[in-house]
Q: What sequence folds into this?
């Protein structure tokens, strides 16, 4: 059973047809949001076309929610698909992470840093 099945309704910022939105319990930056599938599906590739359509809409909504409280300088949008990619909770969730100038010394390479040494080019 997924840890996401125990999330209470009062923790949900928004609920759509296929997903709900919460603030990440372990945020990497202020405003870090998770979009979580209501139905337990392993990863992005297990979603159907209707779910993928709603996901795109909710990524935009997550950005709007974040920007109600802060003004990020950028975003990382991430989905870990499979253990080799770092997935530890095998229930689909998408990270929408606001980024701020100066939050790390050299952000060049962004998500490329998920494989050691590949972020610098």
A:
């Amino acid at each position: 059973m997924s840890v996401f099945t125990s999330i209470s309704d009062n923790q949900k910022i928004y609920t759509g047809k296929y997903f709900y939105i919460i603030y990440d319990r372990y945020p990497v930056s202020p405003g870090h949001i998770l979009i979580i599938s209501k139905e337990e599906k392993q990863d992005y590739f297990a979603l159907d076309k209707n779910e993928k359509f709603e996901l795109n809409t909710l990524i935009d909504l997550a950005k709007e929610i974040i920007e109600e409280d802060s003004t990020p300088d950028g975003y990382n949008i991430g989905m870990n698909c499979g253990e080799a990619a770092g997935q530890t909770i095998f229930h689909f969730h998408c990270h929408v992470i606001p980024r701020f100038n100066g939050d790390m010394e050299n952000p060049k390479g962004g998500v490329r840093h998920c494989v050691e040494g590949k972020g610098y080019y």
